[in-house]
Structure prediction request, 172 residues.
Amino acid sequence: MSVPFTAYTSVPREPLAGTTVIDTGNYAPQRDGRIEALDDGATTSSELFQRHLGASAHVVKAFDNIHHTHLAVLTRPAGAEDRTALPLAGDDAGAKRHAAELLDALGYDTVDAGPSRRAGCSPRAHPRTAPPARSCPPTRSAPWPPAPPRPGSSPGRQAASAAGIRALLAKA
Ligand SMILES: NC(=O)c1ccc[n+]([C@@H]2O[C@H](COP(=O)([O-])OP(=O)(O)OC[C@H]3O[C@@H](n4cnc5c(N)ncnc54)[C@H](OP(=O)(O)O)[C@@H]3O)[C@@H](O)[C@H]2O)c1
Prediction:
């Protein structure tokens, strides 16, 4: 599910019942407008989306910390020394396993970033934009979207290891 945060209530519930829903979304006040419950850390965008979908769908936050232009260049086969790890946040262990299998097939390791309550605390996968410049929660100063790579630069050539992502998550 990859729509601007403010569109989450228009995502239909029925087709997603009984599925794992990967949510890439970020709440960015400068783009989405201010939402008090997110600003003060009372909830997270992932929890709101889960509430909208209902209990039979299982939301897993993933890909929220990596720019789409980096996804294609950071993919690596399993076991590669420079394979990047991406965090997964969600409340259902089975859904997180499904998401991890998908990410593995796409060329990424994964790190468990905790429950949906912690979604949005993910360090940016690309070292240039990691770690998040904020405490988490609240989400007040989320630095999103990151600046796009300059033409001619080599975006996303440096991997973010699972150990590195774990260390950044521990600080977030
Ligand atoms: N872009 C990235 O690299 C990236 C990386 C990580 C996380 N994210 C996060 O992922 C989310 C989506 O980002 P994006 O860059 O993919 O956004 P986007 O290109 O602006 O929108 C993605 C899709 O959302 C649909 N959409 C827009 N407004 C809608 C509405 N009111 N109701 C239903 N569908 C709507 C659009 O469909 P139509 O074309 O059919 O209108 C569009 O194809 C954001 O929260 C963003 O912060 C993005």
Notes: Residues 2-5, 7, 10, 24-26, 28, 63-64, 67-68, 144 surround NAP (CB under 6 Å). Confidence is low (pLDDT under 50) at residues 125-148.
